[in-house]
Write a structure and sequence with these properties.
Length: 100
Amino acid sequence: MGIILLILAVQATTAIIEWVQLNALANRTAILAASNLSQGVTVAVDSAQNSLTSSGLLGSHDSDIHWSINGQTVTLTLQRSIPLLTGSTALSARATALVN
């Protein structure tokens, strides 16, 4: 019984660490997009999208990226599925950045 609780604790810790990394990535990327927004929406999203891809945290087929740009506000939502022993867990992180 003790080993099962240990495994569950490790899995829960893994999910928390993954979420913290995903949230930090969303924040950095939203700020990057907002800082490039003066060059146009396409440039802002492309540069931020490249940053997301190069991070390696999202994987290639197990994540969703949703952008919303309204005026000078950039909102980014990242969703990622991570495999755990108890099954797959969906993580989501949302970040909003404003242009100065």
